[in-house]
Amino acid sequence: MSLLDLTATQLAKAIKKGDVTAVDAMQAVIEQIENKEKELNCYVTFDKEAALENAKKVQAGIEDGSISGPLAGVPVAIKDNMCTKDLLTTCSSKILYNFKPTYTAEAVENLEKAGAVIIGKTNMDEFAMGSTTETSAYGVTRNPWNTEHVPGGSSGGSAAAVAAGECFFALGSDTGGSIRQPASYCGVVGMKPTYGTVSRYGLIAYGSSLDQIGPLCKDVTDCATIMEIIASHDTKDSTSMSRNDTDFTSALVNDVNGMRIGIPRTYFGEGLDPQVKKAVLDAVDVLKSKGAIVEEFDLDLVDYAIPTYYTIAAAEASSNLERFDGVKYGYRAKEYEGLHDMYKRTRSEGFGPEVKRRIMLGSFVLSSGYYDAYYLKALRVKALIKKAFDNAFAKYDIMVTKIVLALDVDARWLLTGEETPTTAPKLGSSLADPIKMYLGDIYTISLNLAGLPGMSIPCGVDSNGLPIGMQIIGDCFKEHNIIRAAYTYELARGGFKTPYDKEVQ
Questions:
Q1: 426 is an active site residue
Q2: Could you give all domains of the chain from N- to C-terminal order, each with its CATH number?
Q3: Quick check: is 463 catalytic?
């Protein structure tokens, strides 16, 4: 077995026992990056020497007993929208091409305290605005399972790096599915926690009421372990929640007997690719065979999620991105006449098309005469969506859905005969039609609107050899239910092979 075949927790145990060192682990990752990075482009910032030096320091701490965390010595990749002191943090945007923060994000700092070793910063959709990692100013990231396909987004670099063995785990952020969707496309585990569970301090904001940091990793055990480390109450984040139930590894129990699972009919309508539907429902049958109680039910208001989300997210993006003006840091236009022209030219040249599109949309819905008609109405619908989930969770412990878009959501696919959107689409196919890309988020964004936790776990591959992900949804602060169900399914499923293993699961 190669060192890269180990999960993060397995590696940590091996390092603690003295079988390998943190330096050995980092060297293995560096070799993989050097072999695969030209093809995949997972990283925006990678400093080989600095990574090795950090690994040596951590190994010394492990040996003298000063570092003993559950992930001590394990190399980790960080999405490029989380501040890392003295290490470039660009949000994969030209406008922050030279930005080196003076502090580190709380979630990243928690990992460092636990002994994890930062490798570098992963590629992403610019300012997390996208679902394919194609809007990055630093080139597209490719899916390790098939490099003609996208890895998903916006945390595509993190998901692809985990799948390709270019790190042992990674952090991503999820505003509308940006952890769960790339996890599904790349065949890894990804979790969005309940809003407020992980501090947003140091996360460069896109939609402040929607953003949440979470892990992308190889299995459910890694996910629970990482969650325990990064979850913390932080007074520097006004939305941070004080919780006394963050012992997520206690939920690693092979038992779903009596667990009530709801299957929303709306998520399994006509037009869904049969391979995806079968894979997800087969996974549900596994849980049912273990004693879970499975029922179908109607989940209202899902059809309103897309307009609600993109109204709120764009409005918050417009406000949050006002600060990038070329005055204090980042890119500044070389030629301009006066302050106003400097602002205009800097932002026109520094932001990519998708970011500018969402800023303009947000500015419109917040403008005089439209604020009540669009933004306030969206906030009211958001509350109704949350109420619909509350009603469902009064009856069910978890819900199970797919991640990908059903064909019948957008009739244009029926009319044009385009390839059914199921697993990871081909590069370039989504950017050609932004509305199509937005619609692809329909089964993930509701969780962000409601603040709910959700996990994507691999449940098979399609006929093209691309992974299929199952989404498990829990009630607020009920990550334990998700982890228990996912862990039980994972044990029954067995190991999920890497994209470089040609055997089919």
A1: no
A2: 3-251 (3.90.1300.10), 263-302+383-493 (3.90.1300.10), 310-366 (no CATH)
A3: no
